[in-house]
Structure formats: structure tokens, C-alpha cells
């Protein structure tokens, strides 16, 4: 039987939006965003609602516990991406993050934190959101890709990743920061690290070509190779198709990698085979969500906390089950 891994959480938080739309307030520095002129705003919102619903069901069917929350607000178009405003960590720690765009700061919700305290063993909540007043930002596990095994935080510099906040996080949570500059094929800074990099237990998906400095690129490649992981190098085109925006999770029958159908379609057969040596691939259809410039990894806030006894015994509670079965 496959051993459990601290890299692969067994539970996630998802947000199902009622009024999803690509956010014009975040488009300036997010080149991954796109428009859909063929559908009305209402049609896009309805499609996004359905994509989250089906993604949650597929994850649950694979044995991943999904805590699904509703978002009724029209003021939070990016709420479907909760991994940016909070993260959880072994030992019972939760972090809240400072967000670059004022429109995204409204996404933080106390009911999510209270659920975590009720269902999991939470010792403390460290709130960095006050750094917003100083123009200092660190958008959670979008800004950072965390190696929970080696205790390394990889981070590409951007408007949304401030090194002062990163150092503070790494000091509190015992990670080593590894910072670099990353750009897309048009030499535009990449807004979030998790679109170019995914670290699993036995593999790493990474767009090495995005790392501007050749010496730094070689250092990071060597650092990752030293962990014994299989390095799967992604092209600029594959990064543009969200092939790096994936997450390893613990399913019922072993570890799975959740990624979008578009991302899976962008991978070469040899890359798929390399992944399938240690994980099962779980593609999710989130084409509408991807209009907002993020994909499956952004949609899933992994829970690296010890569950209380009731959750271990029974899985999702009736309220959560009802949400998952809703149309």
C-alpha cells in the first residue's frame, strides 16, 4: 500500500461562486486571463458554478474530502481561488495572507476558518493581512509553491510576492525561501509561482525556461533533482495551458494529481507516463474558470491539518454532503 505523504493533503476547501467572472481588476498583471465574447455574463457564471460542482464530485469520488462553501457575492469574482488567502500547515497552523488587489481582500471569510477549527486541530492562526496597509503582499500558495518534505518555499517575484512577507512566513513556518524571477514567452513577469511549478511527493512539474537567469535556473533544477524527484520540464506553451497548475492529493486508493483537462491535453505522452509511475491523474473540466487566469491548483486550498476524530470516522458532514449533491 502506498505510504501517506505530507506533500499530499487528504482534504481541500473549495468555493462555489454564484457570480463568477474574469476580474478586470486583476487582468493588468495576469496574462493568463482571457475573455469569452461568445457567452453572456450569466452563462459564464452558470458554467463556472457547474464546473466547481462537478470538480468537487469527482474529487470526492476519488476519496478526497471536499469542504465546499458557497459564495453569493457579486463583489468577489475571484473567490473560486481560495488558496491565495489562506493556507494550512502541519502542527495545527493556519496563515492568512495580504492580497495585492483590493477586490480580492473581500474573499477572506471567517466561516472557513471556523470550520477548520471545528473539524481539524488548529493551534493558531497567523494573520499577515495587515501588511496590505504597507503595500506588502504574499498571495498564499499562489505566490509560493511549498515543498513540505524538504521545507522549501519556492517563489517567483511579482506584484503579489513580496520578499519581506515571504521571509516572515518562512521564519514562522520553518521554510527556506528560494526566490527567482520568472517570465512568460513574451518576457512578462509571471504573476503566481503555482502556474509554473507543482511539487509532488515523487515528481516536480516546472517550467524551467520561465526562470530568467540561467545560473539561477540551473541551481533550482539541481536543488529539485537532489530530492530524488522526477523533474518534468514544461515549455512556455504548456505553462500557458496551465500544465504547471496542478496539485497532488491523497485519494482513497493512493495519491492523485488534480489538474485541468486542458493541462492534461498539453502534456506529452512521456510526461504523462512519468507522472503515472507514482500517481493517478485526475483531470477536471474547468475551462470557464480558467478564463480568470487560474486553474485547478488555484481552486483547491489543501488542508495539512490533523482531523478531529469525527471527521476521520465519517468524512464530510451532512451539510457538506448536501452541497456536493446540489445541482
From TrEMBL:
Gene3D superfamilies in the record, alphabetically? L-arginine/glycine Amidinotransferase, Chain A
InterPro entries the record matches: Amdntrnsf_FN0238
> Which superkingdom is the protein from?
Bacteria
Could you tell me what this protein is called?
A: Amidinotransferase
Amino acid at each position: 500500500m502506498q505510504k501517506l505523504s505530507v506533500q499530499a493533503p487528504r482534504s481541500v476547501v473549495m468555493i462555489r461562486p454564484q457570480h463568477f467572472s474574469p476580474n478586470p481588476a486583476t487582468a493588468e498583471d495576469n496574462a493568463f486571463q482571457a475573455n469569452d465574447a461568445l457567452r453572456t455574463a450569466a452563462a459564464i457564471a452558470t458554467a463556472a458554478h457547474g464546473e466547481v460542482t462537478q470538480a468537487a464530485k469527482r474529487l470526492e469520488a476519488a476519496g478526497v474530502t471536499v469542504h465546499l462553501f458557497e459564495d453569493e457575492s457579486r463583489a468577489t469574482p475571484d473567490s473560486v481561488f481560495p488558496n491565495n488567502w489562506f493556507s494550512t500547515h502541519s502542527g495545527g497552523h493556519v496563515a492568512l495572507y495580504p492580497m495585492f488587489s483590493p477586490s480580492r481582500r473581500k474573499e477572506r471569510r471567517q466561516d472557513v476558518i471556523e470550520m477548520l477549527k471545528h473539524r481539524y486541530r488548529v493551534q493558531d492562526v497567523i494573520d499577515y493581512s495587515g501588511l496590505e496597509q504597507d503595500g506588502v503582499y504574499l498571495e498564499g500558495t499562489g505566490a509560493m509553491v511549498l515543498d513540505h518534505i524538504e521545507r522549501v518555499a519556492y517563489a517567483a517575484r511579482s506584484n503579489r510576492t513580496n520578499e519581506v512577507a515571504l521571509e516572515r512566513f518562512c521564519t514562522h513556518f520553518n521554510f527556506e525561501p528560494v526566490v527567482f524571477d520568472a517570465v512568460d514567452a513574451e518576457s512578462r513577469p509571471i504573476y503566481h509561482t503555482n502556474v509554473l511549478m507543482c511539487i509532488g511527493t515523487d515528481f516536480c512539474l516546472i517550467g524551467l525556461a520561465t526562470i530568467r537567469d540561467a545560473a539561477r535556473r540551473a541551481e533550482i533544477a539541481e536543488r529539485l533533482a537532489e530530492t530524488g524527484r522526477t523533474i518534468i520540464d514544461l515549455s512556455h506553451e504548456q505553462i500557458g495551458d496551465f500544465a504547471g497548475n496542478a496539485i497532488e492529493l491523497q485519494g482513497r486508493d493512493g495519491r492523485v494529481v488534480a489538474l485541468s483537462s486542458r493541462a492534461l491535453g498539453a502534456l506529452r505522452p512521456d510526461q504523462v507516463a512519468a507522472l503515472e509511475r507514482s500517481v493517478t491523474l485526475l483531470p477536471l473540466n474547468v475551462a470557464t474558470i480558467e478564463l480568470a487566469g487560474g486553474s485547478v491548483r488555484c481552486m483547491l486550498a489543501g488542508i495539512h491539518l490533523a482531523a478531529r476524530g469525527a471527521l476521520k470516522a465519517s468524512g464530510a458532514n451532512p451539510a457538506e454532503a448536501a452541497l456536493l449533491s446540489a445541482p
